[in-house]
Specification:
By secondary structure, the chain is of the alpha/beta class. Helices cover 35% and strands 27% of the residues. The chain contains nine helices and ten strands. The radius of gyration is 18 Å and the shape is globular.
């Protein structure tokens, strides 16, 4: 990764607390990192480590208790409604569960058209042509447009989710365990699709996972979280081959290789 590549995303001191009986529960504690344009940062840790909460704070889907987030130099947390809407065209998320992420009452055409309606955009060349092109980008054809989510496999649904996330041509995607609900073979296909899309469109990824082999395959750098804190961060090969923390060693030992 060239050192001169500009920083696209910067998180500084992100902290999240929730009230509980007798005090507060701190689920994220003073997490800081940067993501350079065009790279993939892996955020790994066991379930409950706080990684998904961090990702949602970066996108301001969850408001931090403390900390700062900057995207391309803009203060995400200070953005007002109109500014935040503009930022969200440039930042999107692909959720973990391809079944829950799609409205079962909407056709694929309605699902893919929704971002354009929300952001009041008219695609150049017409909506139908753009929707067909979006499906082709993720390896599906136009016959999918009138169909409904229940008619597709898990891998196909995740491809539809990815197409929707790319609708407004964002620069940055949060990928929140996008293959954990899929079987190994289908998950490998989706991972390779994500890799190809990044190369083709110059995308920047925050890739959340509990699988160190998967992170090693897809990511440039990796940040390891444990109990809400960042315990290790570095170039992915350095961390995977020479982990400093025993917890990182345990993660590496606990996840099998992925056939990609």
């Amino acid at each position: 990764m060239p050192d001169g590549r500009e920083t696209l995303v910067e998180a500084v001191g992100l902290t999240k607390e929730y009230p509980r009986e007798g005090g507060v529960a701190r689920v994220v504690d003073d997490v800081s990192f940067t993501i350079r344009r065009g790279e993939t940062l892996g955020l790994v840790g066991e379930s409950g480590s706080g990684k998904s909460t961090v990702a949602r704070m970066v996108l301001r889907l969850v408001e931090p208790t403390a900390g700062a987030v900057r995207f391309a130099g803009e203060d995400v947390l200070a953005a007002k409604t109109r500014e935040l809407r503009a930022l969200r065209r440039r930042m999107q998320i692909v959720f973990q569960d391809p079944y829950a992420a799609l409205n079962p009452r909407m056709s694929v055409k309605q699902i893919l058209a929704e971002p354009f309606a929300i952001h009041r955009q008219r695609p150049e060349g017409g909506l139908d042509a753009r929707l067909r092109a979006m499906l082709a980008t993720v390896g599906l054809d136009a016959s999918a447009l009138p169909r409904y989510p229940h008619e597709f496999s898990g891998g196909q649904r995740q491809r539809i989710n990815i197409a929707r996330a790319l609708a407004l041509r964002p620069e940055f995607l949060v990928l929140d365990e996008p293959v954990s609900a899929l079987d190994v073979l289908v998950g490998a296909q989706v991972v390779n699709l994500l890799r190809d899309l990044q190369r083709e469109h110059g995308l920047t990824y925050l890739f959340i996972s509990h699988s160190m082999p998967l992170v090693r395959y897809l990511c440039d750098r990796v940040a390891v979280m444990r109990q809400g804190r960042l315990v290790e961060i570095g170039e992915v090969l350095d961390v995977c081959e020479r982990p400093r923390e025993s917890y990182t060693q345990e993660l590496i030992a606990a996840t099998p290789e992925l056939a990609v």
